[in-house]
Specification:
3 helices; 82 residues; 4 strands; 44% helix
């Protein structure tokens, strides 16, 4: 597994059956075309907060949550543009 490849893991039963793709902060930064620092900052701030999963001391991001977050931010931007 390379650093640029997402990590596929089996989701716990609480999240339902199936697999989820976890991304590193660097992968999220690349996807959003921002710095890794920006990703960390928006993971800890009140708004707009990027949803994250903490595994011990490590942060990971569910790819589906990131896609949903992008769609929400786009919707907010479209509403403000009116």
């Amino acid at each position: 597994m390379t650093r640029n490849n997402p990590i596929a893991v089996t989701a716990p039963s609480v999240l339902g059956e199936g697999r989820m793709t976890l991304l590193t902060p660097a992968q999220v930064a690349e996807r959003l075309q921002v710095s890794v620092w920006w990703v960390y900052d928006h993971t800890t701030r009140a708004h707009p907060r990027i949803p994250a999963v903490r595994i011990g001391k490590v942060l990971r991001y569910d790819a589906a949550d990131i896609d949903k977050w992008i769609a929400e931010q786009r919707a907010i931007g479209l509403r403000r543009a009116r």
